[in-house]
Please model this.
Amino acid sequence: MYCQQITEFGKPLEGRSYETPEPTGTEVLLKVSACGVCHSDLHLWEGYFDLGEGVKLDLKDRGMTLPFTMGHEVVGEVIALGPEAEGASIGDKRIVFPWIGCRDCAICRTGDELLCQAPQTVGTRYNGGYADMVIAPHPKYLVPFDGIPAELACTYACSGLTAYSALKKVSHLTADDTLVIIGAGGVGLSAVHFAPSVVDCKIVVADIDEAKRQEALKSGADAAIDNSDPAGLQELMEITGGGAAAAIDFVGAPPTAQFGLNGLRRGGTLIVVGLYGSSIPLSLPTLPLMMRTITGSYVGTLEEMKELMALVQNGKVAPIPYTVRPLEEAHDCLMDLKAGKTVGRYVLQP
Ligand SMILES: [Zn+2]
Ligand SMILES: [Zn+2]
Model:
């Protein structure tokens, strides 16, 4: 098998070849058809998350060993099955649900595998889809995508799922409420697309990039605001008549989180999704006085992945823009992503 691997954090990915892996137990071997490049891959490649105040979460301390193959938005075709892999057949074309836990603890048994204390995520803990082959640990993590192009289907495993799960957390909002979606990159733009299927409220998009704001408006947003403009917050206050019911920050940087928080009305909720990093000062009395909630949302569950694919297959979700590039260009994709050049998603193809 061929893969593009991190051999040293922060250094260009390296193309390497290995023996074809033999699936054991319940494992399934898939030939990769497409793999999305996620912004969080940049952090994995750098080797740390910036926690703010000069503190870093070092991925070596989290048990990540090199060389490592990233890629958690994987679609492929089943080419070999372990002796106990029941429920999959050779030739099945499937999305690999990557957010897998130990499959054994109390949390995993409830289906909330992404809350497991011993995660076994494909592409962040176990070798992923920047490769021509990938192993899924069990057939139950293979999700059908019939009728959807593989290059688009792969993006639902993280970008789409993250957007869907975050939106579900505000699905109680009503037509009089406003939801602010901050950051209209890959995931944020997915959220703009899904929003009408999940929540019945007004959608305002905030992004510093004019092209992304235009794309968001074309995708159905009711309004778009430049959050880098000092007048942006006032504009949001006017549009919403005093603040939004909720904001989802798909960037997760100090200025975006602050914008989201400052733009909330009483009782409003800020959901931080993006992993850009660092920290913000938090005025504690405003939490009780304004009855605000700050919470986080991380990817989504296998159940949500299936719900999402049903929506996609029923034509309820417009496709996000994506650009297919050869697997060998994995590193260039990361660099272009770092430079913020993309509208939509890069998808690698072996
Ligand atoms: Zn991702
Ligand atoms: Zn577990």
Notes: DSSP finds eleven helices and 17 strands in the chain.
